[in-house]
């Protein structure tokens, strides 16, 4: 009787090798990009939406290349100090790779890149745990936007509703969310049903490196962050 594939042991050394090979590929790809493109930017992002970011990347595909992932791996690729940087000044880029950030290699003029990043934003429904940007309160009375079939679901979300002659009715005022407070799973679902988008996917340029110069764009970055080691 043939052995079940489910029962085959997984060799940890193999999985580690695959992980190491992936990291090495990323490192090599970043180093190739340093040689291929005129400049590199560190950027940060808010409320990442993978499909929207993919669309943004596609727009710049012919002139640019993006890297997202482990900041540590990207830092290793560029060099984290003067001693191990692959091009002069690149360790300054590494120091600003932190949190939700990535790399953009490009041959576009810096004015064009700045315009594209500054102008880009996309609105979407907020997810659980996101901070509410507004207070949303529903007043007592009929909720004409909901069909009678939705009444049980709305009750499960904590809304004080009932059916009145086939119409969903709120029996008392109900606060969906409060500005500045994190959204609960129920609040996020109700906002989606109401069509209220509170998340803005945005990209921010942090700094730029080229063989000729280095610029920091975001305010509040300490000088010590970009000084040579």
TrEMBL record:
Residue stretches spanning the membrane: none
Compositional bias ranges of the Basic residues kind: 1-20
Gene3D superfamilies referenced in this protein's UniProt entry, alphabetically: 3.30.70.1730, 3.90.105.20
GO biological process: nuclear-transcribed mRNA catabolic process; ribosomal large subunit assembly; rRNA processing
Entry's localization field: Cytoplasm; Nucleus, Nucleolus
A Pfam family hit: Ribosomal_L10
UniProtKB keywords: Cytoplasm, Nucleus, Ribosome biogenesis
GO molecular function (one): RNA binding
A single GO cellular-component term on record: preribosome, large subunit precursor
Location, primary (coarse class): cytoplasm
Annotated Large ribosomal subunit protein uL10-like insertion domain residues: 126-196
PANTHER family: MRNA TURNOVER PROTEIN 4 HOMOLOG (PTHR45841:SF1), MRNA TURNOVER PROTEIN 4 MRTO4 (PTHR45841)
Quaternary structure note: Associates with the pre-60S ribosomal particle.
Family note: Belongs to the universal ribosomal protein uL10 family.
Function recorded in the entry: Component of the ribosome assembly machinery. Nuclear paralog of the ribosomal protein P0, it binds pre-60S subunits at an early stage of assembly in the nucleolus, and is replaced by P0 in cytoplasmic pre-60S subunits and mature 80S ribosomes. Ribosomal protein P0 is the functional equivalent of E.coli protein L10.
Name of the protein this chain belongs to: Ribosome assembly factor mrt4
Organism encoding this protein: Sesamum radiatum
Lineage: Eukaryota, Viridiplantae, Streptophyta, Embryophyta, Tracheophyta
